[in-house]
Specification:
Elements lengths: L16 H13 L4 H18 L1 H14 L5 H27 L2 H6 L1 E4 L1 H9 L3 E5 L6 H11 L3 E4 L5 H11 L6 E3 L3 H9 L3 E4 L10 E6 L2 E6 L1 H8 L2 E10 L5 E5 L11 H16 L32
Length: 311
């Protein structure tokens, strides 16, 4: 264990008790039959939709921007579906941590696994080019049973929450890498390993460019091209989907050809194109609660300036 980490048992102060109680309740919910547990999750999502005014407003604005063809009634319906999906994500986070392997394998289908396995057999590093869907935790757990990989995580403001998320993912991945540790990602790829990497969320530091997402300008990192070039790696898009019956489908697409190119922005657009195509198959499952279109420079609209009107 690295020196910057503490065991979970060290977070025993009174201020952590509500989170521990919540984890205990989640553990009990995960003992329910799968469909029943997801039904509880949908109920939690409905409550969050009812009382989460500011978050609901963010989701409404993102859906309004990305799906202008929908009527107001259709958008409101999609917002509610998204919150129900967020509630199920909570249950799936618990399942990713505690469920038995055989139970998860039984309800999951993986398509395109041969693309990942062939690249690794050829000695190439693989960037599993993912995105933030509500099925993120449970899908990684199942895929890792077939092919080990390392996962990228983002630090939370709370050390305790960071460790909960990190230890949960370590139930799945071989190693975890903090998202800013590009050098470690490159070393891992050069070793011929696979790294789960999701570059779709807003990014306002060096290396970000303004790239359209569903036709709307957004700040997005172009680091995938750098990782592929310096890590001698191929990029394989990887997207999960929760089906109506509560089972899961994971799809690994063929590796991008001629990737990376000499144009990191064009490379990122290619990623956005396949991501948008998948989002349209399950729009309620993408992580709309994130402010995707924030941090744009002067001259661009502030898409979140009037959220009070959407609560």
């Amino acid at each position: 264990m690295t020196v910057d980490r503490k065991p979970l048992r060290s977070y025993s102060a009174l201020k952590y008790w509500p989170t521990w109680i919540g984890m205990g309740i989640l553990r009990l919910l995960c003992l329910l039959p799968h469909r029943s547990a997801l039904a509880v999750g949908r109920g939690i999502g409905r409550v969050a939709h009812r009382f989460g005014g500011s978050r609901r407003a963010i989701v409404r604005r993102n859906i309004e921007l990305c799906f202008p063809e929908l009527t107001p009634i259709e958008r409101d319906a999609l917002v509610l579906k998204h919150f129900r999906s967020l509630g199920m994500m909570l249950i799936e986070m618990g399942l990713g941590r505690w469920a038995k392997d055989r139970n998860l394998v039984r309800i999951t289908k993986i398509a395109g696994l041969e693309h990942l396995q062939k690249a690794l057999e050829d000695g190439r590093g693989v960037i599993m080019l993912a995105a933030h869907f509500t099925t993120i935790e449970i899908s990684g757990r199942v895929l890792a049973m077939s092919t080990p990989f390392d996962g990228v995580y983002r630090k939370n403001r709370s050390e305790f929450i960071t460790e909960l998320q990190r230890t949960g993912r370590e139930r799945t991945v071989t190693r975890t890498i903090e998202k800013r540790d590009i050098k470690k990602m490159i070393r891992t790829l050069r070793e011929g390993r696979a790294v789960w990497y999701a570059p779709d969320q807003s990014y306002n530091r060096k290396g970000a460019e303004i790239i359209d997402f569903f036709g709307v300008p957004a700040m997005q990192t172009t680091a995938t091209s750098t990782l592929a070039r310096l890590g001698n790696a191929v990029a394989i898009p990887f997207f999960p989907r929760r089906l109506k019956d509560g089972s899961y489908e994971m799809t690994l697409l063929p590796p991008f050809e001629n990737f990376p190119s000499d144009d990191p922005v064009a490379d990122t657009r290619r990623y956005n194109e396949v991501l948008e195509t998948h989002i349209r198959t399950c729009p309620e499952q993408y992580f709309w609660i994130h402010r995707k279109f924030k941090d744009l420079p002067d001259g661009y609209p502030d898409y979140y300036a009037d959220l009070e009107a959407l609560k």
